[in-house]
Write a structure and sequence with these properties.
Chain lengths: 466, 241
């Protein structure tokens, strides 16, 4: 008798099938079907009311749907990691490039900003010069101007302010007397203008107590002195209205163009050395570094104080001097556009590569998609899962790309290359990381769109029999 | 009330020359809860088309299909997909296990489309189901490391893991040798009976068809009840002499 003829009648109770001893497969233990925790068999065998409760759509169906799609996507990425890894090299490199150019752009931008700030001060820097009369008949009294400014600085508690005094003297050097341009400032000038030194240090408040004034000289001057070791406290004899011996405490960085011999010293010894030469209207001024949001208000106050100090007929000479007051678009804007354009192009190329690979992959997955549809995956779920695969993969590549970009941009030798001499090295910009991650997710979504549409169009039975 | 009923169902397709090919003609069939039906038919007889209709995958050209009291036309789009996932389990001739996934992961796949307890406890439920089909020790095995019979048992576990009310087996032993086919069919029959699910086996093998309680033949798109004993007798080697 054939094995199939052992089939029990329809109305007979369920009994285990006797598996013939010669079967190739291991025997099935039918008793296991009626014991153990609740599974399919037991669920269906339960009373219909209980079954109905179990079959109800739980409220968390949306949550489990989303989690399920992400799990599915991650499984797909995990299982096909080699293929995914290969396809994502392009995206990872593109995201790394994007984050690197944005990050490096920020560092380069900071270097540019610092360069602007060295020249014209930090935002917001108010430059104040003695008031003038419209007809130019009379020069303002510099003593009144200085007194008015010192009063303003004290009353409004301006923490960073400096006089700007300019004059000329002679320096007695081994090869003879040399014409020297001299600048009188406060110690705060160093911070306000991000003074860069090649040797030694910038002037401090304590330098005001020295009998021999401290000076910071330019590199040309340093050459003329024979580049002595600053630790030996080299001195220079300076001749102005008086003669004094100054101690060199610092040397500016070399400049690409010749500006003759120049030196900077504190305002007090400057007045003693240069004397009446500093009384010229064009040689005296003040700079105040104030909060940007208060700069306009303070500008008005200074103008009013000046008119109050000098009287009617005088026009205040105060204006904002820093690079942000130049008007028009930010000078860094063209640079940012160029960098952004390059990064976008890189990402576009990476995305195109991913679309290509994803489309080919979906063609190979037609059967799998059909099986999933047969087991209850809705068209939306298949679309979302295929899309998510792409997004999960590109975001993972994006995270790696951003991490790599941080390592590159924060590398001291790279920083030295893109922004030599930058003082306030910015941290890796958060917006660069976020832009790169958002871009990778967007590329993933775009690259996943076409394969997802193809996947949704798969006909279930055709796919299974494919 | 039957679990699934087909009332005078037809299915036809338009050919490239604009003529109409009628694949299924006036199919009427009632499937009760716990029923076991076999449908035999030669290649091209319309078995796959009928499978599409029974599995809530395709729509009839005319006639009416009612599943669990709900007419098919009222089950549209994702609602129908969800019902199919919840109430219909498929077993395929070529097993169609997902490559690169273990036996356990394959059985877990339908539970990814479930919700609530079935979704969150999918690993435990899938493991229990594999245990019940005798593959508790092969959970971590990849499909290619399993024999044909074991693969089909994984497919059975996958089809049953969401407690479907209807199991559609499309040539379940078609890719197996005779002995393995016997074991697999015995298991499928038992599990279906224990769970109370209706089982429809579509096959060209009269021996497999004979396991069912009701037998039909699909010939030229027409479904008719047959006497299995006559069919088996006709299939015996001596009958050919």
């Amino acid at each position: 008798m054939s094995w199939w003829r052992k089939k029990k009648p329809a109305d007979s109770p369920a009994e285990p099938v006797e598996a013939p001893s010669e079967l190739a497969e291991p025997p099935i233990e039918p008793t296991g079907l009626t014991t153990g925790p609740a599974t399919s068999a037991e669920l269906v065998a339960r009373p219909s009311s209980e079954l109905a409760v179990i079959r109800q759509e739980p409220r968390g169906a949306v949550v489990s749907g989303v989690v399920g799609a992400v799990v599915e996507a991650w499984d797909e990425v995990r299982i096909n990691r080699t293929r995914v890894l290969l396809s994502l090299i392009g995206i990872g490199v593109a995201v790394c490039a994007l984050a690197t150019v944005v990050g490096a752009g920020t560092v380069f931008g900071q270097a540019q900003t610092e360069q602007f700030e060295r020249g014209s001060g930090r935002p917001a820097t108010l430059a104040v010069y003695p008031p003038y009369r419209i007809n130019g008949a009379q020069s303002a009294d510099s003593a009144t101007f200085v007194a008015t400014m010192e009063n303003i600085i004290e009353r409004y508690q301006v923490s960073h302010a400096t006089p700007l005094l300019r004059g000329s003297i002679t320096a007695n050097l081994v090869n003879g007397t040399q014409f020297t341009t001299v600048q009188g400032v406060s110690a705060a000038y160093g911070v306000m203008h991000r003074v860069e030194l090649g040797e030694g240090r910038w002037l401090t408040e304590e330098d005001g107590n020295r009998l021999a004034p401290a000076v910071v000289i330019n590199d040309e001057f340093y050459d003329a002195l024979g580049r002595p070791d600053l630790r030996t406290h080299p001195t220079i004899e300076l001749e102005g209205e008086t003669t004094t011996t100054a101690v060199v405490v610092g040397v500016f960085l070399p400049q690409p163009f010749s500006s003759g011999l120049t030196l900077s010293m504190l305002a007090e010894p400057f007045e003693a050395l240069v004397g009446s030469a500093a009384g010229q209207q064009s040689d005296i001024g003040y700079e105040l570094w104030v909060p940007e949001e208060q700069s306009a208000q303070l500008q008005d106050i200074i103008a009013r104080e000046m008119v109050g100090g000098f009287g009617e007929g005088w026009t205040a000479n105060v204006h904002r001097n820093d690079y942000l007051a130049w008007g028009g678009p930010s000078p860094l804007e063209p640079l940012q556009w160029v960098i952004g354009g390059i990064a976008g192009l890189i990402l576009l190329l990476g995305g195109l590569g991913l679309v290509n690979i994803s489309l080919v992959t979906v063609k190979y997955r037609v059967r799998e998609i059909g099986v999933r549809r047969a087991f209850g995956a809705t068209a939306g779920r298949v679309f979302f899962a295929v899309m998510m695969e792409s997004v999960v993969a590109t975001v993972a590549a994006g995270v790696i790309g951003v991490a790599l970009a941080i390592v590159i941009v924060q590398n001291p030798s790279v920083q030295g290359l893109i922004a030599p001499g930058v003082q306030d090295l910015p941290p890796f910009p958060l917006e660069a990381a976020l832009i790169a991650l958002a871009a990778s997710a967007a590329v993933g979504a775009l690259a996943g769109l076409m394969p997802a549409l193809v996947a949704v169009r798969v006909k279930v039975i055709d796919a299974i029999r494919y | 009330m039957p679990l699934l009923s087909l009332d005078d169902v037809t299915r036809s397709v338009e050919l490239p020359d604009f003529s109409t090919l009628e694949i299924l003609k006036g199919i009427t069939l009632n499937v009760e809860v716990g029923d076991h039906i076999s449908i035999v038919g030669r290649s091209g007889s319309g078995k796959s088309t009928l499978l599409n209709l029974l599995g809530l995958i395709d729509n009839p050209t005319s006639g009416r299909i009612v599943f669990d009291g709900e007419p098919l036309e009222k089950l549209a789009g994702s609602k129908r997909d969800r019902k199919r996932g919840r109430d219909v389990g498929f077993i395929f001739q070529q097993f169609n296990l997902l490559a690169g996934r273990t036996a356990l992961e394959n059985v877990m796949t339908p539970l990814l489309y479930a919700s609530g307890r079935q979704f969150w406890r999918r690993k435990v439920i899938a493991a229990e189901m594999l245990d019940r089909v005798g593959l508790g020790g092969r959970m971590a095995s990849m499909p290619e490391k399993l024999s044909g019979g074991e693969q089909q048992r994984v497919a059975i576990a996958r089809a049953l893991v969401r407690s479907p009310r209807l199991i559609l087996a499309d040539e379940p032993t078609g890719a197996l040798d005779v002995e393995t086919g016997k074991t697999v069919m015995a298991l499928l029959d038992d599990v279906a009976e224990q769970s109370g699910a209706a089982l429809i086996t579509i096959t060209h093998d009269p021996n497999v068809a004979a396991l069912a309680r009701r037998h039909y033949r699909l010939d030229g798109g027409v479904l008719e009840a047959i006497d299995v004993r006559k069919m088996l007798a006709a299939s015996l080697p001596e009958a050919a002499l």
